[in-house]
Amino acid sequence: MFHRILRSLYKEQQRRANRLYSLWFTSNGNGVQKAITNAEKLVGYPTSYSSLKYLAEEEPANFLGLAKKLVGSGHPLLSTARDLLSQDPHIGHHLGGLWVLLLSKAAGSGDNLDVLQSELVNGIHQKQRAIADTTELINTAFLVHRSMVDIVQSQSNQTLNLGNKLSVLGGDFLLAKASLELGKLENTKVVEMVSQAIGHLSEGATIERTHSSFDDLKSWEDFIFLLRGSLLAHSCRSAVQVVGHPENVCEDAYNFGMNLALAQRCVEDIEVYQNNKKILTNSNFVLMLARNTSKEINENCKAIDHQEPDINSTKTLKNTIEQDMPDIVNKTRLHYEEHYLSRCRSSIEYFPNANSVQAINDILSTLSQE
Asked: Quick one: residue 122, left, alpha or beta (phi over 0 = left, psi -120 to 50 = alpha)?
């Protein structure tokens, strides 16, 4: 019963998404929906929704019954769940597993004599699919963990407390599942790399909570690497390493994942900057670029460093930026296209599977159109 409910919810969300995409991408027929659909056909099956299947296997009715109690509380766990169900490809974390599978197919089978062609399905080894699933699990686990809220002593709200407990338990459950999947690979190097990425995610989440500002591009890139780039980079590297690719291919895969995460974050930060209902944080790339370009903007930002941002401070900052740097969004697009997206393309240009390389480039092109 629960599986049918999940499938019906997913199909309904897909129908809604299709209507939105038809409005967003109607001119050249090469929009994000078409690019992702073609990519999923290449790798054999859609990777979206994979992390939720684990929740569906373990007493889901109890979990959903508890989650219903959060309705109306404003707890961020509900919005996190909504984002996961919507599978909006504009939310970069939804494509983690798909990127790993596409890269795996693009790189080919490698030189490992222990890997038989019969073990490949659509050009992808079962271990590579396991790594893609693990990437989804870990990413979703941290998204759930990060939905926790601070509850001050004067705010003794049992519903918010329940939401925090569900965030902890749900995230821990998915991490435990990821650990089991990693163990099945029987590859200590992959376990080491993914474990390092989990440590980086924890470190990045801690830095994020401090609302720290970033003095230069390098410090911002280091932060985004911890928060999301490390997992994608190490997952891509692991996926090509398990089938015996040489070090230069592994390094190309790593660089692809790292630069892709940076590009996706820039796209998301532009969306936040242009949305009047979203709060602008110090880690936003648009704000960081403006601060490092304009002394006036930087001085205005110093007054709110290490403070919890809100709508009022966001409005003030945006007004200052738009007056001093009206072309800041175009500058941001130019930066991630010339740096991160171009590096992604150069990392895979010599990979042998031309169809998969083209599928990757098609999705990257939709990022350029944002």
From this structure: left
